[in-house]
Amino acid sequence: MTILITGATGQFGGAVVRYVLDRTNEQVIVSVRSPEKFTVEGVEVRQGDFDHPETLDFRGVDKLLIVSADAHDPNTRIQQHANAIAKAAEHGVGHIFYTSLTDADTSTVGVAVVHKAAEQAIRATGIPFTFLRNGMYHENYLGALAGETVAVSTKDGRVASAARDDYALAAAVALTSAGHENTVYELTGSTTWSFPELAGDRFRDVSDDDLIAAGLPAFVVDFFVAIRNNVFAEVRPDLEKLIGRPSTPIAI
Predict the structure, then answer these.
(1) HSE-CB of 107 using CA atoms within 13 angstroms
(2) Which residues of the chain have pLDDT under 70?
(3) pTM for this entry
(4) Are 209 and 221 a contacting pair, CB within 8 Å?
(5) Which of 54, 136, 174, 189 lies most in the core, judged by the most C-beta atoms within 10 Å?
(6) pLDDT for res 237
(7) What is the pLDDT of residues 129-167, one digit of tens each?
(8) DSSP labels, 8-76
(9) What counts of helices (H) and strands (E) characterise the chain?
């Protein structure tokens, strides 16, 4: 069995690699844009860039984890994913795993169009798939929550977020265990929290326009809108089932 993980020099992909190596003696390969940045021993390194599909080498791969790209432009990301998916089909990959977004097929969050397109492209290949629909990461909000003033437009909306490492462990479990074909996992934290609850008297209720005027990117504000509307408030059981324990609570 051969497992290939993309994006392995990133924080999420790197964590998946570590957990996979802890769980299996099967061959592990990584595909990264800059091989010199990957220093883990015992792993085959292939240079590959989603922007240049001719560089992608997924030959001989039984299980491929496509870690979603991080370009800010949605059209760029959609094309990057399409390039990787097409190459997976061309090279006869046995099973595609993809890190998606909560409710990717129905979500109103702007970035969901990227993940919906990727999921549709994967389904169209006919290759067995597993969609790891990651919810919000604790790490996305720790900086804001640590400030002297926590000025956000979320009001009392709640978030069922989880630690990056918990999502990475879930991916590693799926990659190193039998089954999971044609399965969609909705991955969230085991509990919810709100900005007023955690920030206390440091919380300041501001508008979306205030945040844009302060220089916050529109896609970040879009996530605050989603939180305000409780889009990410539902606790799902899939993460706990995969990692075998409750998720790690957020701590500031």
Answers:
(1) 28
(2) none
(3) 0.96
(4) no
(5) 189
(6) 98
(7) 999 999 999 999 999 999 999 999 999 999 999 999 999
(8) TTSHHHHHHHHHHHHH--SEEEEEES-GGG---TT-EEEE-BTTBGGG---TT-SEEEEPPP--SSHHH
(9) 9, 11
Q: For the CA atoms of 61, 67, 71, 73, what is the dihedral angle to 10 degrees?
A: 90
Distance CA 241, CA 179 (A): 14
Name 228's Cβ contacts closer than 8 Å, sequence gap at least 6: 153, 154, 155, 157
DSSP 162: B
Give the span between the Cα atoms of 86 and 50, in whole angstroms: 11
C-alpha closest to that of 88 among 115, 45, 53, 117: 53
d(C-alpha 30, C-alpha 22), whole Å? 15
Q: What pairs with residue 209 in β-bridges?
A: none
- Alpha carbon distance 28, 43 (integer Å): 6
Q: Is the dihedral of CA 47, 51, 52, 57 positive or negative?
A: positive
Are the CB atoms for 13 and 7 separated by under 8 Å?
A: yes
Q: How far apart are alpha carbons 122 and 99 in whole angstroms? A: 12
161 token code pair: 């977020």
Q: Distance between CA atoms of 144 and 71, rounded to whole angstroms?
A: 22
Taking CA atoms, 231 is separated from 126, 159, 195, 224, in Å, by 31, 8, 15, 10
Residue 171 and residue 24 in contact, taking contact as beta carbons nearer than 8 Å: no
